Amino acid sequence: MALPRPHRFDVYLAAGGLLGGLLLVGIGLGTRPSSDPMTLFDGPWPVLVPLTVLAGCELLRRTAPRAALLTATVAICADLTTQGSIASILMFTDVVYAAVLYGPLASARRIQWITGLLTVAGTLAPFAVWREPEALLIGVVVGVVAYGPAATGWIVRDHRDAAEAARLRAEQTALLAEMDRTQAVVAERARMARELHDMVANHLSAIAIHSTAALSIDDPATSREALTVVRENSVAGLAEMRRLIRILRDTDGDREPAAVPTLDGLAALVEGARANGLDITLDAERVEVPAPVELAAYRIVQESLTNALKHACPGRVTVTLARRDTILDVRVSSPYGHRDGPRVAGSGSGLVGMRERAALLGGTFEAGPEGALWTVCAALPLSEAEGDRQ
User: Fold this and answer.
1) What are the C-alpha distances in Å from 42 to residues 26, 30, 47, 72?
2) Banded model confidence at residue 35, pLDDT cuts 50, 70, 90
3) 329 — phi, psi (to 5°)?
4) DSSP structural state of residue 88
5) Residue 135 in 3-state DSSP?
6) Which domains does the chain have, with CATH numbers?
7) Contact 263, 297 (CB under 8 A)
């Protein structure tokens, strides 16, 4: 398996180290005199062998840091048998630094321990043998050449890992914020869709039914009555639409918020449905409930009456609201079966909206035929809504 290409900066380091070492050899500058007992290979040219190997190790400092360190260790030991070169020592320290910075975490820790132990051994062993204070300088040199670069690499690595962790946390926070924003937008769109449907569908359904009746029945009095209902519902629906648009466009935080429908408005809602031709019986207890439950109950009754206007057979529609412990029961029943006369096709979004309103409060919702009746039942818990209000 071929090694990846060296990093451009590593190529510059290798070239600079090799050229610097050649310059030092050319001017005859080494780290030890030829008379030193450790100099086994006299002359300037044997220095070139470890110098060239260490320059090659610089090329591998990122791509293969452990192999580069092992090879560089052998090369620096070989350099001790020559007159030596400052360039070789500098390149070795850089390889140690890179091995800790770019190598695996386990290898970086081992290099820390090994160089530390070598520094301690290089300090104590020569002093124990020679009993000379100058012997302590050997440990200092080992520490500067080996442990110092390793410690520096570990510090840089620690800061780099901390910066990477901070970056990942920032990205995660931004992602969560974007998810929250998206969910908020989706929830707001769903709420707006429910409000728009509940406010306007009743009026539009009445308009569609009475306009169909006016077109199909050849009776001036009936047509006039139907057109009167059409006009009333058109005006009311237009007013509701304008109110909703004004709410959406309003950016003035000091403006008074629009009035929210309450259960006190059920009587007016029922009267309006009666004017559209429904026979309704209202049985609603006067109970104090939290505002979210009150709005949900009102909208469920409103949508149920709209569905009754569009789909119910002739007969009585019953609206019942009663509190049972911590539950507000909402029940709307209307005649179910084949209907003669004009009707309006339904999209099913009304049932979806009612079910969503009940689910948002942690309640239950059911709608379906029960014998000769179509019944809508919603159980809205009061405890969670009261806790939210507090």
Assistant:
1) 15, 11, 9, 21
2) low
3) -90, 130
4) H
5) helix
6) 8-172 (no CATH), 260-390 (3.30.565.10)
7) yes
Strands (E), the chain: 279-284, 316-324, 327-335, 364-370, 373-381
Q: Model-level pTM?
A: 0.55
| Listed residue (232, 241, 237, 337) closest to 277, CA to CA | 232
Q: Closest by alpha carbon to 349, among 317, 303, 305?
A: 303
Residues 153, 98: Cα–Cα separation, whole Å? 7
The predicted-structure confidence for 319-341, as pLDDT tens digits, reads as follows 999 888 889 999 999 988 665 55
Q: How many helices (H) and strands (E) does the chain have?
A: 12, 5
- DSSP letters of 34-56? TTSTT--S-SSGGGHHHHHHHHH
Contact 106, 93 (CB under 8 A): no
CB atoms within 10 A of CB 388: 11
Reading the block at residue 282, the tokens are 């209202």
Alpha-carbon gap, residue 162 to 178, rounded angstroms:
24
Q: What is the DSSP string of 150-198?
A: HHHHHHHHHHHHHHHHHHHHHHHHHHHHHHHHHHHHHHHHHHHHHHHHH
Rg, C-alpha atoms of the chain: 43
Which of 33, 29, 79 is closest to 52 using CA atoms? 79
For residue 249, what are its two tokens?
A: 């466009």
Alpha-carbon distance 279 to 282, whole Å? 10
User: pLDDT digit string (tens) for 95-128?
Assistant: 999 999 999 999 999 999 999 999 999 888 888 8
Q: Are 328 and 382 in contact (CB under 8 A)?
A: yes
Residue 351 CB-half CA count within 13 A = 12
Put the strands of the sheet holding 327-335 in their side by side order.
279-284, 316-324, 327-335, 373-381, 364-370
* DSSP conformational letter for 294: H
Cα–Cα distance between 96 and 101 in angstroms, integer?
9
Distance, CA of 363 to CA of 361 (rounded, Å): 5
- What backbone torsions phi and psi does residue 65 show, to the nearest 5 degrees? -65, -35
- Residue 375: DSSP 8-state: E
Cα–Cα distance, 41 to 14 (Å, whole number): 24
